[in-house]
Structures are given as C-alpha cells and as structure tokens.
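cron nightly-structures :: item 1 of 1
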Amino acid sequence: MSAYEIAPQIGFWGLIIVFSIGVPGALANVILFVGVKTFRQSPLAYYVVGQSLADVNVLLIEFLQIIPSVSVSTSSIACKLMVFFVQATACAAMNFLCLSAFDRWACTSQSARIRQLSSPHVARRLFLLPFILWSLVNIPFLIYFDLVPPTFRCLYTNDLFMRIGILVLSPIFTALLPLIVLIMFGLMTYRNIRLVVHVRQQPNQIRLSNWEHQMTRMMLTQTLFRKEKSLEEWPDQPTFIIHDVQLGWLGKRLLLWFDLITGGPVNDMFVAPN
C-alpha cells in the first residue's frame, strides 16, 4: 500500500479517534462546571464551558466532513456555513482559553483591584463576547467562499480575501496571537504564584480554595503543552484548527476532576521555593 493510499486512511481514522476523545471530554466539562454548584461560583467555569461548547462545534463540523451527504461540497449553503462556523468557533475557543489564562492571572494578583476582574459578574458579561465578535469578523467567509467549478470544491472566490484568510485570519487569530497571550499571562501567573508566600503576609492576602489552586495548575499546564493540531487540510484551503483534544490535555483535566471530586491532595505549586 502506497503513501497516497495510507494518508487518507490515517486522516479518516484519526478524525474519528479525536472526535471520540474530544467531544466526550468537552461535554464532561460542561456537565461538571454547570452541574456542580461550587464550580458555577467561579468565573473560570464560564470560560471553560464557553470553550468546550466551541470545541464541540468545531469537532462536530469536521466529523461531518466524512459523511458525503452533509459534506461542504453538497451545496453552496453548506460550503459557506460550515467554513464560517468552523472559523468563528475555532477563534472563539482560543478566545475563551485566553480569557481563562487572564482570569488565573487576575485571581492570583497581589492587587485587590486586579483581583476584582476575576469575578462571576465579569465572566457573565464576557461570555457571549467571543461568539459575537468572531461571528462578525468572519462574515466575509459567508461571502467569499463557494463551490468553484469545474471541480466544485469549497474554495475562496476572491484572491484578496484568500490572502487575508491564509496569511492573517487563520494563522494569526487562531494560533499566533492567542499563543502570545497565553504565554504572557502564563508567565505573569507563575510570577504571582512564586510571590504568594510574601502575599500571604499582607493584609489583603490572596485566599484561594484548593480547587481554585487546581484550576490554576491546569491552566499553567495547558499553556505549557499547548499545540495546534491540524486533522484535515482541504485542498487549496487554509488548515482549520482543532482545539483541546490532545491526550495530555485531556489527561490533565481528568486528574483535575478526580482531585476535585475525591478531595485528593493538591499539588502545592503555590508555595515559593526557599
């Protein structure tokens, strides 16, 4: 069997495996953070739920591509809508991840004013913003994507927007810019954690519950191991990014859920070394 015959099989079964792992993991996030009262009281719950919903949408649309009757090549409307929703929700998923990193930085800050930004009230106000923002930004995909003859593939119909989409929208907004934000807030959060012994001696000390400690640990780990995975590249189109389906990331969340539910020991990352 040649490489040309093996590659489609790897893409097909790889997509099924990632879908089977990613969707249950994302739905488990939603159930956990919505169903448990303690978690609902944290602002991070809003960001995790928003990211999980966006991830499910991206994974579902990508999975539907292996079904001929609902493929992007079946009609012009299917082409436009699927490309639009993948782009919008992929950007929204990264946006929620950045908001989670921002929240962890804010809640570990020494400044009481900054810590006020880590609140359910702020999270509720920001919850719909990524969906609305990226839906507006990606409206051109509804206009400049269509089935192009003679092959009738779902492709760009405008050369200028094709350059913008390939060089700006896809790589920068779904990869480069979020990665910079994650690294920046991850480093600042780590700095806050290392100063926590000093902060605990102050009148306005930080008081985080054990599960808040675990959430911060999860976000730092996710930032360190964050990688963008491309599961399927449509010919002559930008590669669409699938988020948060890596085994390492899922394993870290499973560890988090186990610790939170069982009341297990928390890895003491919040004590600065002597």
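cron nightly-structures :: done
Confidence is low (pLDDT under 50) at residues 201-206, 227-274.
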